[in-house]
Amino acid sequence: MAIVYVAADDERGNELWVADGDFSNCRLLKDISAGFASSDPTNLTALPDGRVLFVATDQIHGRELWITDGTGAGTRMLRDIGTGDGTEGPENLTALPDGRVVFTADDGVHGRELWVTDGTAGGTVLLADVTAGEDGTDFRGFHDLGNGRILFSDAYYGASQWATDGTPEGTVELGSLMSYPPEDGIMNLSVRYDGEGRAWFPGQRIFENTVEVAHLSWTTDGTLEGTYRVDAPEAPSSSFYRVGDQWISKYFLYEDGPRGAPTQYIGVTGETGSTLLLPEAIGGSGSSHRMAQLDDERVVMPMYGNDLWVSDGTLEGTYAIAEDILKSEWQLDFLSLGNGKVLFSVTDFEGADLWVTDGSAAGTFQIAPYARWTPQALPATATLLDDGSVLFAAATGDGNSEAVWRVNFWEGGLERVEGVQHWTGDAIFEVARLESDLWTGGG
């Protein structure tokens, strides 16, 4: 195994680097933009064959699509899509299960539109010219449904949903999920994905003169025939998490109608509808929605201000695992690791303590207390290394630039990774895993 990532040192700007699977033997992969200038690689996207796509500039072609196999010789520009040296470059790189990657790009003729690549120059082509002419279409919100289709939306109020399977005939507009124009007061709540090929839109709360008059929900599998309206949960939340074949969230119920005071409960939503998991209220309008996914069956969440709870979506499986450890339910960062553990930072006016939980009382403990050199907050993603530790980048408590951190799951298991130097301090940006140390193949 090898890891490719973006970093800088005292002699070069942001470039592509590579390390062994335990983040040892760090070395420059290629100085794409020679000297102190940066090629600024972004959008690192792993292919099934072990190669990694990314977007970078060599100061000649502007920002373009590049590919690497983990060697300097195998790191090259895939195709010069844009014109000139000032192009913004491809965006929204999203992998399909078959190894192709859908993205948006502007070739100077069609505007920013949908493209697709199979990792070869000849297989990097315009997928759909939705808006004729040079204006293009501002698509965003790309998400792999896991069934061979990608869901996304246009930028015009985010109203129109689209899907693609990476072919022109399989790129379709699913329609607007909004019944009223945005100026009539629609609040689009979060989308949840079941990991089985379907997205659920918890609904649009429709208001007229500040009074809620309707609540609509939709679901889609990325096809026209698989997109339809469903009965909405009684009281949607901005945070839904999977527990078995149900969804769990913190609900706001309105005691005296849509304009009454909201009271927060925990509820589950399944095929038969929504039910309250706990019969008593757990908070009011100032309570946190926060939850974090431990695994496919459980979530953890702050409760009653300072307690940490776990839930599997049943009453008997919902209980406290640590009491009075949180300084504030709002001053809390969760980072789900995908290995049955969740990192979380507990913050107050003094700083952030780093904790971990596996959903049990014994597996919930502090890894490191706050210090001026420790992480100030947790990022959105982290990389699991071959030795079981976790790697991420975060700013230090003393206000300096980002540093690289490795976390081992024992008390005192936080360490700062040295050797990745940036001109303003340590820095690491995007990380992707290479499936092999050397890729061999065509393209």
Report on this structure.
- The protein is mainly beta and 443 residues long.
- Among the domains are: 1-137, Peptidase/esterase 'gauge' domain (Methylamine Dehydrogenase, Chain H, 7 Propeller), CATH 2.130.10.150; 327-437.
- Helix content is 0%, strand content 45%.
- The protein has no helices and 40 strands.
- The protein has strands spanning 2-7, 15-20, 27-30, 42-46, 52-57, 63-68, 76-79, 91-95, 101-106, 112-117, 125-128, 139-144, 150-154, 160-164, 172-176, 186-188, 192-193, 199-208, 211-220, 228-230, 240-243, 246-254, 262-270, 273-276, 283-284, 292-293, 299-303, 307-311, 319-322, 332-336, 342-348, 351-357, 365-368, 383-384, 390-395, 402-407, 414-416, 421-422, 425-426, 431-434.
- The strands form ten sheets. Strands 16, 17, 18, 19 and 20 form a five-stranded antiparallel beta sheet that branches. Strands 21, 22, 23, 24 and 25 form a five-stranded antiparallel beta sheet that branches. Strands 3-2-1-40 form a four-stranded antiparallel beta sheet, with no helix packed on it.
- The protein is globular and about 60 Å long.
- The model is unreliable at 178-189, 206-215, 233-237 and 437-443 (pLDDT under 50).
List the defining traits of the structure above.
Methylamine Dehydrogenase, Chain H, 443 residues, 5-stranded antiparallel beta sheet, mainly beta, disordered C terminus
